[in-house]
Write a structure and sequence with these properties.
Layout: H1 2-6, H2 27-40, E1 46-48, H3 57-60, H4 69-78, E2 90-94, E3 97-102, H5 108-112
Parallel strand pairs: 1-3
Antiparallel strand pairs: 2-3
Length: 116
Amino acid sequence: MAVATQMGIERSSVIISVFSTTPGIGKTIIAINLAAGLAHEGYKVCLADLDLQFGDVLNYLKLTSTNTVAGAQRAMLDHPETFNVRDYLIDYSNAGVKFSILPAPLYVFDAYQTDV
């Protein structure tokens, strides 16, 4: 928020992390339902899938995309002056609930090249 305030933009943002080192306990389902619930309440939501090796938010939502957090990072490093993260977001909409997704890398190789 400090950067936004310095730029003269008045915004309030909240980051919510869903995290565990234990696989298979429902982190993805919780994150998706949390995003959907907040979006349903009228909040602007971006779900960033930062499980770089095994992220599967797109699979759960039956979506496909070649835009990923790995591609966004490469673009940000290669072209910082023209980079816009919105170019890498996927729009999800179902039953009036809408939110954006920044997908995990599609390939394990990309996960090892990503520094988040």
